[in-house]
Please model this.
Amino acid sequence: MRRLVVIALCAALVLSVATRAVAAPAPLTPAEAVALALESDGAPATVHGEALGEALAAPGGKRWVNIGREGTAIGVVMTAEQAAEVPRFGLYRQRGATLEVSGVLNSACDEHGGDLDLHADTVSVLDEGGAIVDPLHPGKLWLAGASATIALALWARYRQLRRRRHLA
Amino acid sequence: MREVRAIAHYLGILIVGLAMTMLIPLATALALGEWEPAIDYVLGIAIACAIGLALALADITSPSISHRQALMISALAWLSAAVIGAIPLAFSGNYPTFIDAVFDSMSGFTTSGLTVAVDLDHMAASHNMWRHLTHLIGGQGIIVAAVSLAIAIKGGAFSLYLAEGRDERILPNVVHTGRFIWFVTAIWVTVGTVMLTIINLVAGMDVVRSSLHAFWLTIAAFDTGGFGPHSQNVLYYHNPYLEGALLVLMLAGTVNFNLHADLFRGDRTEMFKNLEARTLAANIAVLVGFIAVSFSLGQLLATDWEIWRKGVFHIISANSGTGHQTVYAAQWSQFGGAGLIAVVLAMAFGGMVSSTAGGIKSLRIGMILYSVVLSAKKALSPPSAVVRMRFHHLVDRIVTPEIVASALTYFTLYMISYITGGLVGAGYGYEAGAAMFESVSAAANVGLSTGITSPTMPVGLKLFYIVQMWAGRLEYLSLIALAVALMLAIFRPRREQA
Model:
């Protein structure tokens, strides 16, 4: 009897995981979202991407937050409250928060002048982002110093020759 | 040999002048605490000065130069600018290879706007400053910049000025004309920057980013360049007011500097009488009509507002040679066949001569159309009749066979370049239509893209587009002169030996 209960519980667990995997669509990259929008206007989608730049004003008191990944970004229309929850935006030396946005894709949104966009229903922060650390390369400093020395020597020679010929 | 030394001298002087312009991104890096990019610019300036001074030492007497030498210096100056300008970009980490950095540098100087930068959204402000400054320097002309600043090229200023494809004689001497071009640019850039800063501030950007983005976008629009500080280009802002302001700047950038001079003098009649202005206006109107019909048939971008924001914006972006884009590469299919052809034609025709725009140019298109009308009139007239046609471009002129031949020569050279580029792109396995679109965009220095231009495209195609952008900006003649001179240098000694 105990064995049967364990088997039944295991089967239920496997089934529930399997069902979830089938039901929940895999999150898309912004490039995949753009492709899906063109293929199926108005499709629901979940997109993962890094919040870039800043939140910008959108009509109706909403906000535009562009999220990007692998070189492509997509504009997400969200409420001001949702945008305020984004802790960090991607900039030079700063990795923006990774967002999971679920909503509806529009290939040419009538509300926003024909822009291809994603109207967010839910926005969750998967990762808060942070600083991008890239230490100074000493090799560059050496190269800069050497090049500057050569340039200064050539400049001195140029001036000297011009003066000798009374050209400068 | 003395001829080559003179060329090397002036080339060296121009490279040193170019190095000095890198002080601006260096100052930006220092002001914003971008230490690594600051070193990139110290490095760029030092290497450029070293190369420039070594070349300048070839002949320190600043000799006078012939028109042929001037053509060669002009062609080599643009190539050198692209290579030297690529040095700090190559160290930025945003370009996988040096060729990629040269691609963006050439694209910047020729005001094309095609880009192969990776991770543009995290690029340092100083590197973005340099990318956009290349538009400003190239848009006005590398030699115009040097002439205006009287950078030690007095011996060859006039020949060099003409060799860069400039023929404005707004003021009696080229130094004053060059300075006038910069004066007009300074006014437009100031007005545009203020306008766009306000728009960005209202949209929620901070003061520093607002003003920097405003300055960059203004330069990119007025100089008909098309770079943007984000991977989405103008789509990043999702802002109709910003797009409206850019429309005005793009149109201003495509206007002949002679017409700007007339407007500054308060003479508006020239703008309405000028054949070139009329041709450009008619061209834009017809192509907007095409795109409006195409959008309406396609249903997706069918509202008036969408026709304005997507249709008119992209026609003017293409016709002015700017290349600012508010759609994804994959979205061109939404424009429909007629819409897409309208965009390609707009790119191919280009803006006005003596402006920052590329392409065949409206004046030449107008001349070719006039010659068609003239031929028809001649055919319908008695054989003994003398048929003439007049046109107005700054002054009243008669359509002569020489003028028409010149227009047809440029038309042919551009068409050869467009078609060759399309064939090369198709040869690399890209879809023919997309390859032709990209080729026209590169050769006419526009910058709109179907997605072919990317860091992952074949190196051979990158090099081909680099040459196309270079040749298109110089309107082919300087490059042909350089090629002929090189061939003569290679083959003549052999013949003499034989």
User: Anything to note?
Assistant: Residues 59 and 112 of chain A are 8 Å apart (CA to CA). The first strand of chain A starts at residue 44 and ends at 58. Chain A has a mean pLDDT of 89. Chain A has four helices and seven strands.
